[in-house]
C-alpha cells in the first residue's frame, strides 16, 4: 500500500518519525511547507531519523490562516489525485493536518488521525477548530489517552473507529534522547551544569503577541534564581525585536536547537518553563517538572500526574517553587508517563495498514 504521511511543522515531524519508521517502505512522508524555516525543519529530519520528505507544494509559509488552509487544500488535492495514496495519515491540530485530512476525505481516501481527541474547549484557538474539523472527517482516530478517546465518542465518532494507542512522543523521546556522555557534552557546549538551570520555550501567540505579557514572562524567567536557556522560536524572536522587550541578564537566548539537543538540555534541567504542547508530554517521559505558561491545556494528563502546573506569567515563580518542593523532583523522576508505553507507533502502523485495505467510510 501507499501511505501519504502529511507533515507541516516541527512537532508533526517529531511525532510521526516513529510511525514512518514502523510503516517501512509503505510510508511516503510529505512536507507541506507550512514551516520551511531551515532552523525549524531542515536540521530535524536527520536528528529524528526521518527520510527526507517530498515537498510538492510551494509558497505555503507566510500566508494567513485561511490562505494557508486554502492553498494546502488545493495543492494536496492535486497531489493525492495524481499520486493516489491508499491512506493519508495526519497528526495533531495544524493547518497542514486540517488541509491534508479534508483533501483526502473529499477524494474518498481513508484518513488516519494521529493524536486524535485533544480538546481545549476554547474555540478561539485555531488549533481547537482544526481538531474539530479533522475529527469530523477522519476514518480512524488514534487517541493517545482514554480521556482523548472519550472526547471523540462523546462527539459521536463510531466506537469502532476510536483506538487508544498512546502518544508516539514516548518512543520518540526515548529513541532520540542522546546517551549520558553526549548529554554531558551538549550541556557543556551550552554552558550549563546538570540540575543547575532552567530550559524555557515560548511560541504561542497568547504569549508572544501581547508585548506586556511577553515582558512579564521574561521578567518572571529572570527571577527564578537559576540561569535560563531560551531557544527562540522565529515568531518569538520577531516579537522580541518588534516590542523592544528587555531580556533579563539571567536569560540566555539561543537559536532553535535540533530535537536530540533539546531533549539533552531538558533531561539536564532542574525545571522547564514552556507554552509548548509537545514539551508537556516530553517532561513526563524525562521525569521533569514543568511550568506551563498558558491559561488552559488540552493535555490535562501531565497536570493530573503531577508533572506540570499551569501559571500566568506573574505566577511562574510560585508554580516553580511548588514543583521544586523537597522530594517532588525525585518523585517525578520515577513516575510513569500518562501518555503511553512506548509502543504507540506499532499500533498506529497496524491501524494504518488495515485502513489501506478497507475503503474509506466517506
Ligand atoms: N523543540 C526542539 N527544539 C527547540 C524547541 C522545541 O526540538 O528549540 C521540540 C520540543 O522538544 C517538542 C517540539 O519541539 O517536541 C514542540 O514543538 P512546538 O513547541 O513548536 O509545538 P507544539 O508542541 O506546541 O505544537
From TrEMBL:
It comes from the Bacteria. GO terms for molecular function: UDP-N-acetylglucosamine 2-epimerase activity. The keyword Translocase does not apply. InterPro entries: UDP_GlcNAc_Epimerase_2_dom (IPR003331), WecB-like (IPR029767). Its EC number is 5.1.3.14. Residues 30-351 form the UDP-N-acetylglucosamine 2-epimerase domain. The keyword Isomerase applies. Belongs to the UDP-N-acetylglucosamine 2-epimerase family. PANTHER family: UDP-N-ACETYLGLUCOSAMINE 2-EPIMERASE. This is UDP-N-acetylglucosamine 2-epimerase (Non-hydrolyzing). The gene is wecB.
Amino acid at each position: 500500500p501507499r501511505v501519504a504521511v502529511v507533515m507541516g511543522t516541527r512537532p508533526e515531524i517529531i511525532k510521526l518519525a516513529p510511525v514512518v519508521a514502523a510503516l517501512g517502505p509503505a510510508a511516503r512522508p510529505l512536507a507541506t511547507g507550512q514551516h520551511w524555516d531551515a532552523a525549524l525543519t531542515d536540521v530535524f529530519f536527520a536528528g529524528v531519523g526521518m527520510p527526507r520528505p517530498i515537498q510538492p507544494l510551494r509558497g505555503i509559509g507566510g500566508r494567513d490562516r485561511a490562505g494557508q488552509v486554502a492553498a494546502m487544500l488545493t495543492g494536496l488535492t492535486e497531489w493525492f489525485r495524481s499520486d493516489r495514496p491508499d491512506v493519508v495519515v495526519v497528526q495533531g491540530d495544524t493547518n497542514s493536518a486540517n488541509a491534508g485530512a479534508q483533501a483526502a476525505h473529499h477524494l474518498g481516501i481513508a484518513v488516519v488521525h494521529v493524536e486524535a481527541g485533544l480538546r481545549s474547549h476554547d474555540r478561539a484557538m485555531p488549533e481547537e477548530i482544526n481538531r474539530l474539523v479533522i475529527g469530523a472527517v477522519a476514518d480512524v482516530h488514534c487517541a493517545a489517552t482514554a480521556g482523548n478517546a472519550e472526547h471523540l465518542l462523546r462527539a459521536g465518532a463510531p466506537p469502532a473507529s476510536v483506538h487508544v494507542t498512546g502518544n508516539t512522543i514516548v518512543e520518540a523521546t526515548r529513541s532520540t534522547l542522546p546517551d549520558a556522555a553526549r548529554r554531558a557534552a551538549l550541556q557543556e557546549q551550552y554552558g550549563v551544569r546538570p540540575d543547575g538551570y532552567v530550559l524555557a520555550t515560548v511560541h504561542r501567540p497568547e504569549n508572544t503577541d501581547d508585548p506586556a505579557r511577553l515582558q512579564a514572562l521574561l521578567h518572571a524567567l529572570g527571577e527564578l534564581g537559576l540561569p535560563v536557556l531560551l531557544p527562540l522560536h522565529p515568531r518569538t524572536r520577531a516579537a522580541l525585536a518588534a516590542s523592544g522587550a528587555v531580556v533579563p541578564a539571567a536569560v540566555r537566548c539561543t537559536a532553535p536547537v535540533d530535537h536530540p539537543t533539546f531533549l539533552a538540555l531538558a533531561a539536564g534541567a532542574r525545571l522547564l518553563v514552556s507554552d509548548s504542547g509537545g514539551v508537556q508530554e516530553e517532561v513526563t517521559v524525562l521525569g521533569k517538572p514543568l511550568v506551563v505558561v498558558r491559561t488552559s491545556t488540552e493535555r490535562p494528563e501531565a497536570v493530573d500526574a503531577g508533572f506540570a502546573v499551569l501559571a500566568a506569567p506573574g505566577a511562574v515563580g510560585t508554580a516553580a517553587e511548588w514543583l521544586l518542593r523537597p522530594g517532588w523532583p525525585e518523585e517525578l523522576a520515577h513516575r510513569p508517563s500518562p501518555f503511553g508505553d512506548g509502543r504507540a507507533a506499532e499500533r498506529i502502523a497496524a491501524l494504518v495498514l488495515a485502513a489501506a485495505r478497507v475503503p474509506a467510510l466517506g
